[in-house]
Amino acid sequence: MADISGFDANDHEPNTGFYAIPAGNYPAIIIKSVMKDTKDATNDHKLLELTLQIMDGPHQNHTMKDWLNLVNSNPKTVTMAKGTLSAICRAVNIMAPKMTEELENKPLTIVVKTKKVDGEFRNEIDAYKPHSVSVATPAPKEHPKEMAESTSGGKAKATSASPFG
User: Fold this and answer.
1) Distance (Å, rounded) from C-alpha 89 to C-alpha 71?
2) This prediction's pTM
3) Nearest to 159 by CA among 69, 55, 25
4) Residue 19: which of 59, 51, 66 has the closest Cα?
5) Fold for domain 17-149?
6) 106 — phi, psi (to 5°)?
7) What is the pLDDT of residues 35-83, one digit of tens each?
């Protein structure tokens, strides 16, 4: 049992669950970066897990994740991850970072795709671009009713296959 005396739910907005956002360009920042082991326990594979947060607009503060498989026995996987990391570095104008924290809290633009997986809408980060003050978040061509209703289990995921390393 944990002591949470002093906590008052009236002082905090409740979490509303995960949901997919419409496809489009969003101003964002990387708020966390962690190197992790992959699920492949037989190899020393590692991925860089990035947590991004949208900075503005109707989805302000919405978070998404992206995973860059930077250490992997598959060279194509590593090449893709390094390509994504290169795009992130160029977007924030830090070409040779020593630590991933150097990429955090720097404005950039994420290009978000929406796709249906197992009957639920999910997001993927398709690209990273330099931040533009006039970043527009276009409405999707189709915004199915289910998309707005897919809050249970519809965790917004970015599944870029781009690795770092």
Assistant:
1) 18
2) 0.72
3) 69
4) 59
5) OB fold (Dihydrolipoamide Acetyltransferase, E2P) (2.40.50)
6) -110, 125
7) 999 887 677 899 999 999 999 999 999 999 999 999 999 999 999 999 9
The per-residue pLDDT for range 80-117, each reduced to its tens digit, is 999 999 999 999 999 999 999 999 999 999 999 999 99
- Give a three-class secondary structure readout of the chain: CCCCCCCCHHHCCCCCCCCCCCCEEEEEEEEEEEEEECCCCCCCCEEEEEEEEECCCCCCCCEEEEEEEEECCCHHHHHHHHHHHHHHHHHHCCCCCCCHHHHCCCCEEEEEEEEEECCEEEEEEEEEEECCCCCCCCCCCCCCHHHHHCCCCCCCCCCCCCCCC
Tokens representing 134 are 């006039």
Q: What are phi and psi of 108, to 5 degrees?
A: -150, 175
pLDDT of residue 91: 98
Backbone torsions φ then ψ of 48, nearest 5 degrees = -95, 115
The pair of three-digit structure tokens given for residue 92, joined into one six-digit string: 């924030």
Strand partners, 25: 111
